[in-house]
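Troubleshooting: if your tokenizer reports a length mismatch, compare your output against this known-good record of 195 residues.
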Amino acid sequence: MSQISDAEILLIAETDKRQAFELAFNQFWEPLYRKTCRKVGDENIAKDLVQDVFIVLWDSFDKLKGNEMLLPYLYAVLRNKILKLFEKDEVRLRYAVKAGSAEETLEPSSHQLLLNKELRAAISGEIDKMPSRMKEIYILKKDKDFSIKEIAQKLSLSEQTVKNQLLSAYRRLKEGLKHYGPSLCISFMLYLLLS
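Known-good structure output:
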């Protein structure tokens, strides 16, 4: 199937929104889905997010101008959906950790202490490999407990840039710790939330 220009899709949307939607869906679903799978690592979540992106497109057809580039627009919507998903997951995990720690006041085992030491060393190594700006943003967020807004102001960056850098930092850490066992990865998630 040949590609149809964004301008043509938007022109068709003025008279036949359904046809324009089908054209956009057929043309952009696959690249959006592949990118989302890479970002979230789960096919079902990726399908849901891409579906949400196309719902936004359907609702936005009337507002989009004829010279609008659709794929960059859809990627921007997708990026926001992914960030919201990650924020929600972080809130849920914090709640679970807080509830779990309130119920358990057991002393850590020697295995857990060793695991925590190994985790700290692995995370420290991965942080050292980050580009300097990303490392600085990560440290301000995790070690100094700055808000995204405070980091943006301190470094004269946009809040979105700070969010993107943090997301990249978390991805780097996750990738760097992938070869460790599941117990270390779970400890890593707890470390991120509690440190």
